[in-house]
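Readers outside the structure-tokenisation community will struggle with the description of the input data as it stands. For illustration, here is how one protein appears when written out as sequence plus structure tokens:
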Amino acid sequence: MKENEILSEIHRVREEIARECGYDVKEIFRRMRAQTEQLKAQGWSVVSPAPRESETAYALREEPSKQKPQP
């Protein structure tokens, strides 16, 4: 199978960032948040993607019984 150049680049950059952060997830996210704030300060609009239908949470609630309690 032919190598996908885009995926290879993503994996290379991901590995590079993880190595720079000592493979510490908290440090990776701290760095990501700092970069996001820097982009906002530069005037970029930062948005979150809309949730997919499969990710939407639904709550089910049982309706109370309308029968009178038996003595």
